[in-house]
Each structure stands twice: as structure tokens, then as C-alpha cells.
Design goal:
Order of helices and strands: HHHHHHHHH
Radius of gyration: 18 Å
Distance between the termini: 60 Å
Strand content: under 5%
Helix content: over 70%
Length: 185
């Protein structure tokens, strides 16, 4: 019975990812989750008490996987500069991933305080990953530099998500250049 519940919960989360990536937060409804999973609408409430609870669980499940991919890309680089580049490139490479699209849709929505705090904490974990590399590059305030670097990444993510005129690779290259060389051309 526990295995069946676990499988149903995973199916609901997968359906939530799909709904969020295809239609944004408006698409994430309990009737839509029920339809996607073949469950009765009342059964969805047995797994999640609210839409916010679905969002919180998605953050708990997906963000650590995403962060681990960024961390692994950074760990593969021997130099501080290589780690910064990997930090930017890996995050931007994940933009097309359903997990990332769901997190972006989630973060753009109106969430309860608990869900917003989970997203903030997860982003804080990403920022913490890069502080040491920035210190290695000689930044006097590596934590501040890390937060600003994440701002560059977040802006590039939004640009890619919007389907900007620039190709995603061009946006990635511009973000990497900005991260490594600042605003100098």
C-alpha cells in the first residue's frame, strides 16, 4: 500500500511539472492533476491539501537535483574561473528541463509564505555554492558578488524563457562573458 501511494504521489508530481511547464501556474489545478493521473479529484486531496503543498513538494524534490547538477559541473572544473563558468552554463543549460520550467513557473506565481521561503532557501544554496570560487578570484565581498552573479543568471534565464530574439546559446555566452569579465566588451 505504501509503495502504491508513493507511486501515485510521484505521478501527481510529474503531472504537476507538465502542467506548470506547459501552462504556468494557472494550469496547476486539482481537476487537471486528477485528469492527468486518472485519479478522482477527491483523491488528489488525499495526497496534497492545497496547490501550495504541491508547489512546496516540487521544490523539495526538484531543486536539490538541479542544484546537484550545477555542483557537479563546478566540481569538474579545476580553476575558480572554470567553476564560475560552469555555474552559469549549467544553470542556463537546465532552462529547457521540465523541472526547471516548473520551478520558474512556481517562482513567478503568488505563493504562500512557506513555499516562498523554500524557494528562497534553495536559491540561497545555489549562491552559497559559488562564494568560494569568487573568493578564489579575489573578490573582497564574495557573498555579494555571488548574489549579483545569480542575478545575471536569473536575467539570462528570463531572457531564454521569454523566447528572446537572441538564440539561447548567444544569451548563455553573453551571461558567461558578463560573469567572467563584467560589462567590458
Amino acid at each position: 500500500m505504501a509503495e502504491h501511494r508513493s507511486m501515485q504521489r510521484a505521478a501527481l508530481l510529474d503531472a504537476a511539472r507538465t502542467l506548470l511547464s506547459e501552462g504556468g501556474t494557472e494550469a496547476l489545478t486539482f481537476p487537471a492533476l486528477a485528469e492527468r493521473t486518472g485519479l478522482a479529484r477527491s483523491s488528489v486531496y488525499e495526497y496534497f491539501r492545497s496547490r501550495g503543498a504541491v508547489v512546496e513538494e516540487l521544490c523539495e524534490v526538484d531543486f536539490p537535483v538541479w542544484a546537484a547538477e550545477v555542483e557537479a559541473a563546478m566540481a569538474a572544473e579545476p580553476s575558480a574561473e572554470g567553476k564560475v563558468e560552469a555555474y552559469v552554463r549549467r544553470q542556463l543549460a537546465l532552462v529547457g528541463d521540465r523541472r526547471h520550467r516548473a520551478v520558474v513557473a512556481i517562482s513567478a506565481s503568488e505563493l504562500d509564505a512557506g513555499a516562498r521561503e523554500k524557494i528562497r532557501a534553495a536559491h540561497g544554496g545555489l549562491v552559497a555554492m559559488i562564494v568560494e570560487a569568487l573568493a578564489g578570484l579575489g573578490h573582497e565581498q564574495p557573498r555579494l558578488a555571488a548574489m549579483l552573479l545569480q542575478g545575471v543568471v536569473d536575467a539570462a534565464v528570463r531572457r531564454i524563457e521569454l523566447g528572446a530574439a537572441e538564440h539561447p546559446e548567444a544569451i548563455t555566452e553573453a551571461a558567461v562573458a558578463m560573469a567572467l569579465r563584467g560589462v567590458r566588451g
